[in-house]
Amino acid sequence: MAQQTILLAGDHGDLARIAEGSMKPAAVLVPVTDRPRPGVILTQRTDTLRHHAGQVAFPGGRLDPGEDAVAAALREAEEEIALAPSAVRIVGEADRYRTVTGYTVTPVVGVVPPDLTLRPSEAEVAKVFEVPLDYLLDTANHIEARSQWQGQERRYYEIMWDNHRIWGATAAMIVNLGRRLKWSL
After folding, report:
1. Is the pLDDT of residue 170 over 80?
2. Strand, helix or coil for residue 79
3. Torsion of CA 164, 117, 93, 24, to 10 degrees
4. 85, β-bridge pairs
5. Which pLDDT band, with edges at 50, 70 and 90, does 145 fall under?
6. What span, in angstroms and rounded, lies between the C-alpha atoms of 173 and 165?
7. Which of these, 122, 137, 125, lies nearest to 32 by C-alpha position?
8. Within a 13 Å sphere around the CA of 178, how many CA atoms are in the beta-carbon half?
9. Buried b (16+ CB within 10 A) or exposed e, 104-129
10. What's the mean pLDDT in 29-46?
11. What is the widest separation between alpha-carbon atoms in the chain?
12. d(CA 185, CA 174)
């Protein structure tokens, strides 16, 4: 019998009450480095941002009118870390993830050359770093956590790497990618 893949649909406790049409479309790029031990490029947001200050994230953001997820992810990666769209070989889109902040996010997986010179946008990105893909996808590194948010218990995943806390939607999209690939070590 085939085993069913259980994916995380979103970080809101009652997604059924949120109308899909009311969600704002967004996309992130999951840039995987083309090296013997592939890595994933992540950003740490600046502490001065109004939303998600200091958090670890994939490059990405809201879709502009007329854009699809791939175009938005590539545009945002270029704006945030100076990753040229021509340097990215798109693999495809991963499972959408709905956030409590009202976004439906499409992760776009792409392969990039190793050791690119990336320049963080001073206004948005404090740091750019790479985490080994096998480390991110290893379920032993997926820590289930919970906290109170707006009077409700919120459950989420976090992944610790080199003093970086990867959590929330970013960690959930990584967990989903690992589950979709049926990653196991």
Report:
1. yes
2. helix
3. 70
4. none
5. confident
6. 14
7. 137
8. 23
9. bbbbbbbebeeeeebebbeebbbebe
10. 96
11. 51
12. 15
